[in-house]
């Protein structure tokens, strides 16, 4: 019996290989989410690997087609509810639920310095007209992670949810998409306000 060919040209072959890579990324994320839920992987390792897979998905998915995630999983019969949820949110569970930093053996001053540095880096980026998704997403992800790691910041600190919402919004866009002037202005306002509130918390914690 002759083998069935999936492609007849190098271009078609590249498409199938890319779809295979996308499939592998989604299923790897599914297994990672399940492992983290079973406490089989540390928060630090989970966060690093999850961030890597999310970035890989965003990059590879744009090389395949304009299919939505739901369409892709149905078409290729993927059973991956945890991965779909994580891809829709666009950030690791540790960051989404403010668990990052728990149990890490670093001193408070290091957390504070990192958070302040990430605030300043984000504001500098916006001031330098940095507005594309692939530039802003890592900045906001690092900033939220730093805020979550600061021991004196309460769980209900309002800017945590604000930045989660921004990350989710950016995750729904293409990597090459850019925020418009009003969105950049709003984001800058919120980052500056969050920075001031963060410093107020720091002052009262001393």
Automatic annotation (TrEMBL):
GO terms for cellular component: ESCRT I complex; late endosome membrane. It comes from Coemansia biformis. Residues 107-203 form the VPS28 C-terminal domain. One of its GO terms (biological process) is protein transport to vacuole involved in ubiquitin-dependent protein catabolic process via the multivesicular body sorting pathway. InterPro entries: ESCRT_assembly_dom (IPR037202), Vps28 (IPR007143), VPS28_C (IPR017899), VPS28_C_sf (IPR037206), VPS28_N (IPR017898), VPS28_N_sf (IPR038358). Keywords: Endosome, Protein transport, Transport. Residues 1-97 form the VPS28 N-terminal domain. PANTHER family: VACUOLAR PROTEIN SORTING 28, ISOFORM 2 VPS28, VACUOLAR PROTEIN SORTING-ASSOCIATED PROTEIN 28 HOMOLOG. This is Vacuolar protein sorting-associated protein 28. Belongs to the VPS28 family. Its main location: membrane.
């Amino acid at each position: 019996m002759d083998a069935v060919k999936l492609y007849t040209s190098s271009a078609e072959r590249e498409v199938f290989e890319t779809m295979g890579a996308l499939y592998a990324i989604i299923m790897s994320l599914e297994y990672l989410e399940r492992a983290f839920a079973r406490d089989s992987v540390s928060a630090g390792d989970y966060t690093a690997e999850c961030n890597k897979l999310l970035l890989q998905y965003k990059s590879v998915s744009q090389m395949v087609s304009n299919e939505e995630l739901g369409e892709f999983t149905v078409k290729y019969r993927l059973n991956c509810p945890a991965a779909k949820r994580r891809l829709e949110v666009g950030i690791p569970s540790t960051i989404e639920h403010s668990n990052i930093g728990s149990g890490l053996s670093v001193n408070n001053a290091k957390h504070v310095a990192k958070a302040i540095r990430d605030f300043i880096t984000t504001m500098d980026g916006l001031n330098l007209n940095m507005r594309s998704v692939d530039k802003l997403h890592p900045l906001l992800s690092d900033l939220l992670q730093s805020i979550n790691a600061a021991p004196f910041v309460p769980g209900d600190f309002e800017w945590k949810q604000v930045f989660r919402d921004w990350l989710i919004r950016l995750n729904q866009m293409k990597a090459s998409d850019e925020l418009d002037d009003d969105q950049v202005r709003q984001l800058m306002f919120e980052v500056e306000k969050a920075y001031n509130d963060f410093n107020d918390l720091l002052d009262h914690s001393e």
